[in-house]
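Progress against Task 2.4 (sequence-to-structure conversion) is shown through the following example record, which the project officer requested during the mid-term review.
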Amino acid sequence: MRILFITSTRLGDAVLSTGLLDVLLARYPQARFTIACGPVAAALFDAMPRRERTIVVTKRRYDLHWLSLWRDCVGTRWDLCVDLRGSAVTLFLPARRRAIMRGGRRQGARITHLGGVLGLSPPPLPVMWTAPADRAQARAILPDGIRWLALAPTANWAGKIWPADRFVALARMMQAQRGPLRPVILYGPGEAERAMASAVLAALPDAVDAGGHFTLPQVAALLARCQGFIGNDSGLMHLSAAVGTPTLGLFGPSRISEYGPVGRCARGVAAPGPEGEAPIAGLEVAAVVDAAIGLLDDAGAVPDGGLSVVA
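Structure tokens generated for the chain above:
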């Protein structure tokens, strides 16, 4: 059995879609999967069981990337095509069944819309797949015996970024109120991401620099070793929630009702004001500390999260 799964170009959306894949893996134990996604999200599926191939869809002028995807897939007889991009590609592929997510702005949580593509209510929680080497490396970088607190001070646009000095104040207040918590600073690849994180790294000399050069499964394994995560609305936030780490997402003008973190122990805190308009600078450190402490207090009653191991 062959399944084609077309998911997002953006990391956060791709993470949210992994719950559907988890359902399909269980429902069709003999199926082999081809994943089509954008370059940023491609490594997310490296350790996925029964993944036959990942097709990286790189955006081209005049939507020619869809033609390239069609050419890559038209020679296969698909048993199921799942298209979360709402494109017309799967309509022109030989397929026994199709499930296509329709476009347009919708109200409510993105995860609910994704679940609806397969008629799943409630929608499945995201998961993340890692390999033994990923987990061994994470254990070497973040060894046992230390309580690690992941901080993610970057995002893909300025309006989502909580000021760096507040992340620093947050780390110090969490240490003062909850005892030893050693920061782990996460950020994406590239100089721009490194520059966004540099002020936090400079002000917290005991922090572990865990950004920039790790693969997504390696980052997931690092996150799984942390007692908690606090960070901007970003792909890293969704990845943390997917592995089951207690996750607190920080929201300003992005919509917490649509893109709040989804997991067994995940929640968001938003700046005061109308959703979608409130500047993230209005989010005070004390409010984040209170939310983080409440999250960590609740975490002990929550079962293990969605980190999936691959032998």
